Amino acid sequence: MSTLLRIQDLTVEYKTRRGVARGVDNVSLSLEENKTLGLAGESGCGKSTLGRSIMKLVPYPGQIVNGRIDLLLHDDVEYAKGVIPKGIVNILDLDDDEMRGLRGKEIAYIFQDPMTSLNPMIRIETHFEEIMKAHYPDIEEEEITGRAYEILDGLGILPERITDYPHQFSGGMRQRVMIGLALALRPKLLIADEPTTSLDVIVEAQILEEVAELKELFNLTMILITHNLGVLAQTADDIAIMYTGRIMELSPTESLFEDPLHPYAKALLESVPDVTHPEKKLTWIPGAPPDLVNPVPGCMYNPRCPHAMEICRTTQPDLITTGEGRLVACHLFGGN
Ligand code: SF4
User: Is residue 106 part of a domain?
Assistant: First the structure.
């Protein structure tokens, strides 16, 4: 199995009137083909900024200030002004035209709110047409319809509804349409940013099941961004727990749920209701994440951590390997 994506020392900063805030702080990770990586953590921990960095779509005033994002291209990628040769390409070296060639075709993104991403004035079939014609101007109408039907059918939408407008769909159906549009060009990497957040649990479960089937069908590699650890338990191979823009723990899903290493990962898991143990008391994490413009010295979690030691208040822990496929950034496990 090959590595599809490798991120090294990625740092994203937001320049605000109060100062500079690091949305993503020195993040490194890699993702094997056909695997699903979950990104979890509280709101504002850098999950979406990290996901958007891979698309080079960090919203203003965010800026990628350091690092590299290597993507493996199995084939040459044609774009409006030329060809990106196959092989490993650092996304951060690509210009806007080259990125437009990659987006949709190699990497696709499902945004959080389908109503703001779908154009209410045009039918679903036109959404599919626009996406496909932007990359393949000579594509035949029948091929567009054929691909759209196949994807919509896989997502439980009757093909004849392709002539409907977005407002004629329910919230769950709109989100399915968004997923369908993201898959229209058969991308290799799909980044799904809270794809089921606004949906009820039944629709959420159905959509996740459909996405899992499409992932197999299209050999997709996925990054699933969510604060819902229950969703990741069912779908992710590995989970990265983020806090203040840094990875605190990255572990295989099973290991993380059985034996979380980082105190923050442990606290997050303990704050999730467990239907198999209704007697278990729910806990919460005291305090709030620190202000990123005025970060605390040492480990960013130290003001909230019940295990904080002297070193934690002065020295930021490195992300170190502690076991098979497990990485943790905490002085309890050694390292700097
Ligand atoms: Fe807690 Fe220290 Fe580990 Fe940070 S480094 S999580 S403060 S024990």
Answer: no
Residue 305 within a domain: yes
Question: Which one, of 262, 260, 232, lies nearest residue 247 by Cα?
Answer: 262
Pocket test for ligand 1, best of 307, 310, 327 (most atoms within 8 A of CB): 307
| Torsion from C-alpha of 220, 139, 175, 217, nearest 10 degrees | -30
- CA-based R_g, the chain, Å: 21
Q: Is residue 220 part of a domain?
A: no
Identify whether 208 is part of a domain: no
Tell me how many domains the chain contains: 1
Alpha-carbon span 335 to 319, nearest angstrom: 8
Ligand 1: residues within 6 Å at CB? 263, 299, 301-302, 305, 307-309, 312, 317, 330-332
Domain of residue 329: give its range. 258-333
Predicted local confidence at residue 175, as pLDDT? 87
Half-sphere exposure of 202 (CA within 13 A, CB side): 0
Is the pTM higher than 0.85? The answer reads yes
User: What are the tens digits of pLDDT across the range 266-317?
Assistant: 999 998 877 777 787 778 888 999 999 999 999 999 999 999 999 999 999 9
CB-CB contact of 132 with 116 (8 Å):
no
